[in-house]
Structure formats: C-alpha cells, structure tokens
Amino acid sequence: ATTEIYTLSLHDVFRSPIGRKTEPFPSAAHAITAPAMTQRLNIIGGGMAGCEAAWQAAQLGVPVTIYEMRPKVETFAHQTGDLGEMVCSNSFRSDDDEQNAVGLVHWEMRAAGSLIMATADKHRIPAGGALAVDREPYAKSITAAIHAHPLINVTYDEITHLPDEGQWIVATGPLTSGALAEAIQAETGSEALAFFDAIAPIIYADSIDMSRAWMQSRYDKGETEEERTAYLNCPMSKAQYEAFIDALLEAEKTEFKPGETAGYFDGCLPIEVMAERGRETLRFGPMKPVGLCNAHDPENKPYAVVQLRRDNALGTLFNIVGFQTKMKYGAQTRVLRMIPGLEEAEFARLGGIHRNSFINSPTLLTPQMQLKSKPNIRFAGQITGVEGYVESAAMGMVAGRMAAAELSGHTLPPPGPDTGCGALITHITGGAVAKTFQPMNVNFGLFPPIDTVKGGRKRRKERYKAYTDRAKETFSAWLER
C-alpha cells in the first residue's frame, strides 16, 4: 500500500502576494509517494516548531498527532487557540539570504518545503528588507493547513509527563505548562534555565498623528514603493528624548515574585532596562535616527526616532519596534504618549513581560536532538535554547525530518554545521558552554570560519556571501539524503 503525500496545491495556495522571490514549492523532493506507515510520531505543542515538525514528517509519509493544550490551558502571552500563533513581534526579521544568517535560514526552510515559510510568504506585509506577516490570517492559515492534512491529527489536550514509549517531539516553547516542566525537571535532574521575555505594545493606526509622523523605511530599503515606506516614524528632539528617558526610568514597573530570578535575553530587552544601562543606549538601539529624513522638517535631523511597523495587512494596527516593556499598564499609556505623533494613541494591546523557560540542551540533548536519558523523545523549538520564530521553526523542521527517518528505519544526520540549521543544532547540542548557556539567535559567529584569501580576511560583505553560498550547497545535499 502507498500513501500520496499531501501537497495542498501549494504553488497557488502559498504564493507570495507581493511577488517577492520564493523557491519553487514543493518540489518533487518534498512531495513523494512513500510506503504507508502504522507507527505514529507524537508532537507536544502546536506552535511554529511543532507545526513545522508535523508538516515535515507527514510530507514524508509518517502519520502525526499534535497535542496542543490551548485553549483548554491558557498562557499569559497567547490570545487565541490557533496553531502557530505569533505572540510577540510579527516579524521573521531579515529576508536577505546572501548577507544575513536568519535570511539564510529562510532559504533553507523554503528549500525544505516549509509550511511556516510558505504561509509567511502568503501573508507577508511590507516591512522593508524584513519578512513581516499579517499575524491573525497567518495563524489561521497554519491551523487550516494542519487540520486539512490527511496524515496529521490534532488533539487539544495537555500532556503532563514524558512518555516512555513511542516517538515524541517536545515543542512546547518557552511557555511550557507547569506540569510538563516539572516532569522535564524530574527526568533531567536539574532545573530548567529561564529568562524573562517582553512584548511590545500595538497601536491603532487611526490614532496616530500623521502631521508629526511620516512613512519611510530606513535608508529607503525595499524593492517597491510600498516597502520603502513600510515603517512609520516619530521624531524626537534632544529635549523630548531626555524627558522620555526620565519618564521611562521613573515609571512604575512589573516586579518579579519573591525568589524569582532570571536574566533577560539581550535580543529582547525591555526598553526600561536599556535606558538603565545608559541614557544614550536607546538612541543607539531601537531609537537610532540614522537612514531617515523627516518629511515634515527635512532640514533638521531628529535626535532620536521611534519606529512603528505595520502589524496587519489592512494597515490598521502598528507595533512599536523594539519597545518591549515591563511598565505597568497605566505607566505605559502615559509614557508612550510622550512620543511625538502618539499623543492621542489608542492601544490594541499593551506590552508585558513573562517568564520563558528552556532546557540546558548542551548537557541534555544528542546531535539527533534526542533526550539522552530518553532517546524516544526529541526536543525542538525555543525550549531548546534557540531564540526567534525562524530559529524555533527551523529546529522543528529538522527534528521532524530526523524523527520521520528513524520511524522509516534509518538515521538522518543533522545538516552540516556550515548551514544555518546545522550551526544552530551544533550550538545547542555541544557547541555552547553549558555553564553559561543562554538563548541564541542564528548568526555567522556560529558558523565554521571561511578560509582567508590572498591579501587578508575577506571583507564582511564578501565573507557573508561566501558563508551563504557554502551553506546552500551543503543544505541542498542534505535534502537529498
């Protein structure tokens, strides 16, 4: 007996509405005819990593069950019961697959027939050189595709233990339920590491004063006029900036519970923490004024600029870029309305802070992403210590393929360490120092160095292009295994 692997007519269903380049999807390598299987892969968690793992395994002929605790068990950050919900930013970051490590992972995932990336391409909205999506229809499309796949079953129930039998992937993300977190702790004999993560506020577009603000992407970056005007900018003078910093420092903030200690992830620091590190920190971070010209006052360069990015396709919602916050709600509205153009801002969602958990992967996981003490269980996604939507989904993609191979009777090695996905796996399964292990975004510092050329080290642009060329060749070969 054979099972035709599901394709969803993806060339049409997931075609990018903006016409940006995408890899042919799916190719013959992704949609194959395989022997029908009775062994099932079980996945705990219906976020991006869990959905991608399920999709990859099902496309290779393996029946899958996803166990998702929402909406029965809610979390602080989730707003819906949809699969693949985006709980923080709506951005997958840079889509440049030649000069940026996360853009390279985009390419690798597209080459592997990724559901997450295909859906992101379908629901992308202008964001300059970044890949940002309309978050609500994005999650609904993920949910519909998963439910429609004939080899994927979704059970809305909480798993509270680590099973002894069967093949499992734990992709519960940073908001793992208390009961399962306790089971992981009991099995590993050590406490999960943790850090605090924050989310940024979202503002209704019609409450923004466009006589003060203007639309422009930094350095006018983008292939179309829509992309070159993808960001909304609010300028500040030096006096306004100094008053804003004073207000940030004095604002009432969320206090942690007694005995609750954890560090922040440097890539997602609350703005108050950045301000505490120095009064100029924000001006050289999310509020940097470079690459922008105030359309209302082109002769005067702003001292600082607050950027907002479109949060949905209609352009009715904007999130404040880099403005994760732990200010209490009353303080948020007061302080953020000090920003020129946001004096009358109305908020669709205020920011907040929550505790994220992750395991000490370098001590606990094999290169197959299996738990050393329970090899029938793999971990994938943000719980492994990778940071970001793309990195989390990529780990789900690889875990799903490796689990499918095992259920088919053979072993699929991880991608080479010179690929984006392989560099992440190498980092979390032994490349990082376990004692100081912290969440990590993909970056070229995780890659094996490129050989030098005559005359010294390659310039950065040439070096990054060499990294991505090498990675694409290695990853393409991995897909053929």
Rg over CA atoms: 22 Å
Major sheet details: 6 strands, mixed
Discrete helix count: 14
* Average pLDDT metric: 86
Principal-axis shape equals globular
Give the N-terminus to C-terminus distance in angstroms: 23 Å
Total beta strand runs: 20
Helix content percent band: 25-40%
Low-confidence stretches: 1-36
Percent in strands: 15-25%
* Coarse structural class: alpha/beta
Cross-sheet strand order for the largest sheet? 8-4-3-9-20-19
Could you explain how this protein is built, in words?
The chain has 481 residues and is α/β, with parallel strands linked by helices. The chain has 14 helices and 20 strands. The chain has helices at residues 10-13, 48-59, 101-111, 115-122, 135-148, 178-188, 225-228, 238-250, 271-276, 329-336, 361-364, 389-407, 420-431, 460-479, and strands spanning 2-4, 33-35, 41-44, 64-67, 91-94, 124-125, 130-133, 152-155, 167-170, 193-199, 202-204, 214-215, 231-236, 263-264, 304-310, 317-320, 347-349, 352-358, 370-371, 374-379. The protein has a 6-stranded mixed β-sheet. The chain has a 6-stranded antiparallel β-sheet with strand order 12-13-15-16-11-17. A 3-stranded antiparallel β-sheet has the order 5-7-6. Strand 15 and strand 16 form a beta hairpin. It is globular. Residues 1-36 have low confidence and may be disordered.
